[in-house]
Write a structure and sequence with these properties.
Elements (H helix, E strand, L loop, with lengths): L3 H15 L3 H11 L5 H9 L3 H8 L9 H20 L3 H11 L10 H9 L16 H18 L14 H9 L22
Helix pairs in contact: 1-2, 1-9, 3-4, 3-8, 4-5, 5-6, 5-8, 6-7
């Protein structure tokens, strides 16, 4: 038997999407944490909206929940850092390094030191560990593939990656407002239904 709260949230989400209230739908997903919209998240990453991707992600997990979550957030921030370097914005890249990578030193003490070497290079692709880094679009696709695997294995996303099928009567009630067909726990007339109103 499904959870009525979850069913209602799925129906509301479906309604919001049908009414083209996409931002509201994504906010509901993030704030309730009941459904992770992988397609939306992938679009954010593939379009370079890294801050928005990380904000959406934080509705479901945070950096220190488990190693999968840590890796997901690290990959997003690393890609943002490399793209900033690729655009020649070294000052901005330094700020990113100082502000967004310090939290990862718990897992790798030399991370910031190693990344700061990239700031001194004309092209970070000359670093042996990044020699295979292609253009931005290819790099984003590869990063997203890694992130997708981490999300699928991450216990924080268990049961949140599949959109649930909803009971047809509940769907009819929400979508069409036909309260005469829906039982209401002892309220109304016989059998828990409102009496017919003519």
């Amino acid at each position: 038997m499904s959870d009525p709260r979850s069913d209602i949230l799925y129906l509301i989400l479906q309604f919001l999407d049908n009414e083209n209230l996409k931002e509201t739908a994504r906010t509901l997903e993030r704030e309730s944490g009941f459904y992770f919209n992988m397609r939306f998240f992938e679009d954010l990453v593939l379009n370079g909206a890294f801050d928005e991707a990380e904000e959406y992600l934080y509705g479901f997990t945070d950096m220190h929940d488990n190693m999968y979550s840590t890796k997901i957030i690290f990959e997003i921030r690393k890609q943002k850092f490399l793209e900033t370097l690729d655009e020649g914005e070294r000052t901005k890249a330094l700020r990113l390094l100082m502000n967004e990578f310090k939290e990862f030193e718990v897992y790798n003490e030399s991370l910031c030191k190693e990344a700061s070497v990239l700031l001194t290079m004309d092209d970070f692709r000359n670093h042996e560990s990044l020699a295979d880094y292609g253009d931005i679009e290819d790099a984003r696709r590869l990063v997203m593939n890694d992130i997708r695997r981490c999300i699928e294995l991450n216990p924080a996303f268990q049961g949140k990656l599949q959109f649930q099928n909803i009971d047809a009567n509940l769907h009819h009630l929400i979508m069409f407002g036909d309260i005469r067909r829906a039982p209401l726990n002892g309220m109304g007339g016989a059998g828990g239904h409102f009496p017919e109103i003519n």
